[in-house]
Amino acid sequence: MTTLEFILGHYAYWLTLVLMMIGLYGMMMKRNLVKKLIGMTIFQVSIIIFYVAGAVKWGATEPILDNVDIEKVHHGMTQAISTAKYINPLPHTLMLTAIVVGVATTGVAFALVIMIYKRYKTLDEAVLLERMKKDNDSDN
Amino acid sequence: MTHKEDNPIITLVSRVVSPFIMIFALYVIFHGHYSPGGGFQGGTMLAAAVLLVRLGAGREISQLQFKKSWGMPLGSLGVLIYFGTGFVAMLLGGNFLNYEFLPLAGAANAVRGWGILFVEIGVGTAVMGILVAIYDDLLEGDPL
Amino acid sequence: MILTTNSPVLIPLLFLVFGLLIPLIAWKRNSLAWPTLMLVSTAAAAISIYNVFKVLSTGPVHYHLGNWVPPIGIEYVLDHLSVFVMVVINVVAFLVLIHAREIVGKEMPGKQAPYFATVSLMMAGFNGIVVTGDLFNLYVFLEISSLSLYGLIAIGERKSPVAAFRYLIMGTVAASFYLLGVGFLYMTTGSLNMADVKAILPSIIGQPTVLIALALMVLGMGIKMALFPLHGWLPDAYTYAPSTSSAIIAPTGTKVASYVMLRVMFFVFGVSYVAKTLPLAAMITWMAAIAIIYGSIMAIAQSEMKRMLAYSSVAQVGYIALGIGLANPFGLIGAVLHVLNHAVMKAGLFLVSGNLRFKLGHSNIFKLDNTVRKKMPWTMAAFTVGALSMVGLPPMAGFFSKWYLIRGAYSSPSWTGWVFIGVIFLSSLLNAVYFFRIIEKVYMKPLTASKNGANGHDHNDHHAAGHVVEAEVPRDEVSGSMLIPTLVLAVGLIVLGILNAFIVNGIIKYIIPAGM
Description:
The complex is a heterotrimer of chains A (140), B (144) and C (516).
Chain A: H1 3-9, H2 11-29, H3 33-53, H4 67-74, H5 90-120, H6 125-139
Chain B: H1 8-30, H2 39-57, H3 59-65, H4 71-91, H5 108-138
Chain C: H1 2-5, H2 7-25, H3 33-58, E1 61-64, E2 75-78, H4 80-107, H5 112-131, H6 135-154, H7 160-189, H8 194-200, H9 208-225, H10 234-240, H11 243-268, H12 271-277, H13 280-300, H14 305-326, H15 329-360, H16 372-375, H17 377-391, H18 397-410, H19 416-444, H20 458-465, H21 480-498, H22 500-506
Antiparallel strand pairs in C: 1-2
Helix pairs in contact in C: 2-3, 2-5, 3-4, 3-5, 4-5, 4-11, 4-15, 4-21, 5-6, 5-11, 6-7, 7-9, 7-10, 9-11, 10-14, 11-14, 11-15, 13-14, 13-19, 14-15, 14-18, 14-19, 15-17, 15-18, 15-21, 17-19, 17-21, 18-19, 18-21
C-alpha cells in the first residue's frame, strides 16, 4: 500500500505512539514532580487507547444484543449470533481494570509528593537533589 | 479554595445536583451486568456526588452528608462483600466465585446474574469509599 | 476438604482478606495487628508446603476460577516452578515477620496496623503473581504488589519518599511495558491464557508483532528485576526503607520478577525461539555478566551496610539472569537454586543489619568496632555464616548454585562460556573483599577498648596502662523474637547446602522445559 494509505490507515496506532512519547518526554525532561506524574498518566492513557483501538471491527456496532439476536437467545440458538456485528468487548473490560490501577497509582503518587513537600518544602527536582545532598553532608 | 464568604449559587447548585448524581450512579451500578455500566463506573460517580458537595459547599456542610470517618470502613466493607460472595460459593462446594452455588432460588443462569449483581454492589461501595477517603486524607492538614 | 481442593487460590485470597481485616481488628488496640498477620503468614507457609507435596505426588494442578473453562476463564496453575517459588517467598516472609514485631514497634510506633496491612497486601500480590496462569491477571497482581511496595518503602527515613517516588515512576513504566506486550500478544493470538498462547504461537512465530511483544515483556520484567542497566531504583529504595521493609522486599521482590521472566521466556514463547532464533538469551547473559561485576565493585565502595547489601543484590540478580540466559539445563537449575539461596541469604543479612540498627542505632560499617563481637555474638555469627555463603564456600548453600552456574557456562558454545566462568570467579573474590572487611573489623582485632568503649582508640590505652587491657563489654544481644529468625536463616543456609542434591533431584529437575 502507499505511504499515505499506511499512515492514515493506522492512525490509532500513531496516536498511541505520539502519546507514549509525550508521556516519556514529560517524565524525563520536566523538573517539577507533578509534571512528571502527569507524564506518567499520559503514558498509561496511551496504552489504554492502544487496547481500545485494537477492539474495533469494520462496520460493527456496540456489543449489546439487538432484538433479532435476543430472539435467537430465547429460542436457544446462541450459536447463530454473528459476532462480526459487535465489537470485541474484552479489551474494554481489561482497560477498566487498567484505568482503576492508574487511579490508585496516581493516589499513592500524590501522597508521596505531599510527603516530599512537607519535608523539603520544594517540588523542583534540582532544588530537591541539592537539599538532599546537604542532608547527606550534615549527617556525616 | 479559600472562601471567607460562601458563594450561595455554588453552594445551592452543588447541594441540589448531588442526589441526582447519586441516583444515576445507582442506576449505572445495577445495570452493570446487562448493559454498559458496572461497579467501577457507578462507584466513581457516587464518589463524584460526595466530592461535589465537599468542593462546592465547604467541608463542614459536607460532613452532614458523608462523614470523614466513613470512607475507609466503607471501602473495606465493599471489598469484603466481594470476597464474601466468592467465599460463600467456595464453602458451598464450588470453586471460588462460582455463583451457581449461592443459596438463592432460581435457574442456574439467573443465580449467576444475582451473583454478579452482589459483586458489582461490593465493588461500587468500595470504590466510592476509597476515592472519598483519598480526597480526605490528602487534604487533611489543609487549613480551609 | 474445602481447603485441599481450593488450595491454589487460598493463599492470595487469605492475604487479601486479612489485609482489609487488620485495620478493622486493630481499630482500638494497635497491638492486635501483629498476631493477626502472623496467623495469616503461618497459614500461608503451611499451605504452600502442602502444595509442594501435592504437586510432587499428583502432578500439576489446574484450578478454574468460577468454573469457567480456560481460555474463556482465568485459571490458576500449580506446577513445580510455581510451588517452588511460592514456598520460598512464604517461608522467608514468615521468618522475617517474626522478627518484625519489636523493630516495627521501635521504628514506627503507633503505625503497626496500617504497616502490617500493607505487608499483607504485598504478600497477596506476590503470591498471586506466582500462582496465576493468565497473563492479564498477572498484571493486576503485579500492580497490587507494586503499590504496596511503594507504601512500605516510603515510611522510612527522611529521604525515603524521594526513593519511593523514583521507584514509583520506574515501576509504573515497567508494568505499562508489560501490559503493552500482553496487548500485542492478545491481538495476534486472541487469547490471554498462558498455555493457550503457547499452543497458538508456533503458527505465527515469524511475525514482528510477536518479537515486539517478547521484547516489551522482557524489558518490563527487567526493570522490576533490577537487571543492569535498569537497576537505578534499587540502591536508594533498599537503603532508605525501614529495616523490616528491606528484609521482606529484598528476598522476594526481585525473585518474583525473575520468575515472571522465566515463565514468559521459556514456558510461553518457548526455548528455541528465545535462544536460537533470536539472540535474546545471549544478550541477557552479557547484561548479567556486567551486572555481576558492576554490583560487586559498587558494593566495595559503600560505607553503609544496607547500601552495600543493596548493590550486592544487583550482583546476585545478575547470577539469576545469567542462569536464565544460558538456556541450558544446568544454567536453569543454577538460576532456580540461586533464587532459593539468595532469598535465604539476603533475608538473614538484612535481619542482621536490622538487629544492629535496633541495638547500636546505626549500621555504618566504619563505625562498627570490635566491641560488637562481645555485645552481639550470635548476630555476628549469623552474619559470618551469611557472608561465607555469599562468597561461595562449601558446604554453605551459596557454593552449590554457583557450581551449577559454572557447569552451565561450561556447556555453552565457544569462548563466551569461559568469560562467564571468569566473571563468576572474579565476583566471588570481590564479594570476599567487602564481606571480609566487616568480619576483619569485628573479629580480627584484639579487645583493647575501655569500659564504655565505642571508639576503639587502642593507642591511648597503650600509653596509659602500658599493656593491652581485656575490657569487660556487657552482652547486649537482641531479644529472642528477633534473634531466633536470624539464627534459623543462618542455620538454614548450612542445611540447604548439605541437602541441595535432594532439592535438585526432588523438585528442580522437573522444572526444565521440553526442548532445552
